[in-house]
Amino acid sequence: MICTLCPRSCGVDRSKTLGYCKMGEEVTAAKAYLHPFEEPPISGTRGSGTVFFSGCNLSCIFCQNAEISHERKGQKITPERLADIFLSLEQKGAHNINLVTPSHFTFPVLKALDIAKRTLTIPIVFNSSGYESVSTLKLWDGYVDIYLPDFKYVSPVLSKKYSNAPDYFEFASAAVKEMLRQVGDTEYDSEGLLKKGLIIRHLILPGCYNDSIEVLRWISSNLSGNFLVSIMSQYTPNAKVSGTELDRRVSTFEYKKVLNEAQGLGLNGFMQQRESAQSSFTPDFDYEGIL
User: Of 206, 244, 216, 203, whose CA–CA distance to 58 is shortest?
Assistant: First the structure.
């Protein structure tokens, strides 16, 4: 099948060669465990049942998960095995099933969900870079309870420079509208955990706070209803940004400028503290729960 699942539309037959995402058509994953570091109504007290898929349609030079997104680390698994993983995570106490960058594996993951949903009772979270095609998102309609996308940039200069995606804003802005259309307003259970809804994440990058402000202004002006915004300050420099303008943490000034804008716009959600910018928050991709 010629792959057009993501905005790259690279058009390769992934049964024979790799796509831009660096993946073939078989599901490849590097970890499945109870993740404690998502937003509070996602991780709760027991953790989010998170499956980290390998490969990515972006090329972010600052990626904290580069060993699975860029370096192809992961284990191939069948849809049947993936369904078993979902059910195992639920049995371990997961509050939800959290699919991290699943869109390039859309068809086998949906097959796994069809198998698992015969008994699976917890919400499904679609955790994404935001660089998605609306046509692919429509395939997920009815499967996803909670969308958890990034909204990284408005500026095509920045999205080209840091993620090799000058059209990022065009696709991400359409994607979050489609996500909100599908899931509607946020809903919580009796424990205060999210049952349904949209949380838009934005990672503040050093030197880019003006673009962060533009992201928040676009969200405020173009989305209506009850959704949440999560502002993240966890940016941690890696070896690929050494010697560049990204080779530092976000400053207190930048952090406060973005948070003040969010508060001024009346956006509801979460504001991550600057001390969360530590590499220890990045999972060890050791195939836990996969093998």
Answer: 203
Task: Round the CA-based radius of gyration of the chain to a whole number and report it.
Answer: 18
Write the burial class of residue 239 (CB in 10 Å: 0-12 exposed, 13-18 middle, 19+ buried): exposed
pTM of the model: 0.96
Q: What is the pLDDT of residues 99-128, one digit of tens each?
A: 999 999 999 999 999 999 999 999 999 999
Dihedral pair phi/psi, residue 128, rounded to 5°: -140, 155
Q: Give CA separation, 34 vs 127, 149, 289, in Å.
A: 15, 19, 10
Q: State the 10-residue block means of pLDDT for the chain, 291 residues long.
A: 94 96 97 96 97 97 94 95 98 98 98 96 98 98 98 98 98 98 97 97 98 98 97 92 95 95 96 59 89 90
Q: Terminus-to-terminus CA distance in the chain, angstroms?
A: 28
Residues 233-254: pLDDT tens digits? Answer: 989 999 999 999 999 999 999 9
Amino acid residing at 83: A
Give the Cα separation of 57 and 159 in Å (integer): 13
- What is the three-state SS of 81-150? HHHHHHHHHHHCCCCCEEEECCHHHHHHHHHHHHHHCCCCCCCEEEEECCCCCHHHHHHCCCCCCEEEEE
